[in-house]
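Last lecture ended with a question: if I hand you only a sequence, what can you say about the shape of the protein? Today we answer it with a concrete record. The protein is Bestrophin homolog. Below, first the input exactly as provided, then the predicted structure, then a couple of comments.
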Amino acid sequence: GFMTRYERKIFDDLKSPHLKYWVPFVWFGNLASKARKEGRIRDSVDLQTLMNEMNKYRSWCSLLFGYDWVGIPLVYTQVVTLAVYTFFFACLIGRQFLDTDQGYQGHDLDLYIPVFTLLQFFFYAGWLKV
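The predicted structure:
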């Protein structure tokens, strides 16, 4: 509802490899300058205040775009990958069965699939991929 159909077509036809958040700001600046020339904005100070506020908002948008542009540092992903696989390896070793040849009382051979360890691994590895 903020653009006319014609403006939307121009916006969609604009080819840019990046986000096009800046296009409406350029349109706004041109319209504000045109309004000043036509006398709709009576004072240059008002135009300057209007443009300063618009530029402040545009800089906030570009800062947000910058956060999206720069990913998580590579070192962080390497550390998390190492932590996930080390944790899983420690779980595999730490959750082994007792040796039944030692004759521990009440501990018989218990063959099972470590379901919760596998679930933990799938959860952490999936979280890592995200």
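Comments.
1. Residues 54 and 60 are 10 Å apart (CA to CA).
2. The mean pLDDT is 84.
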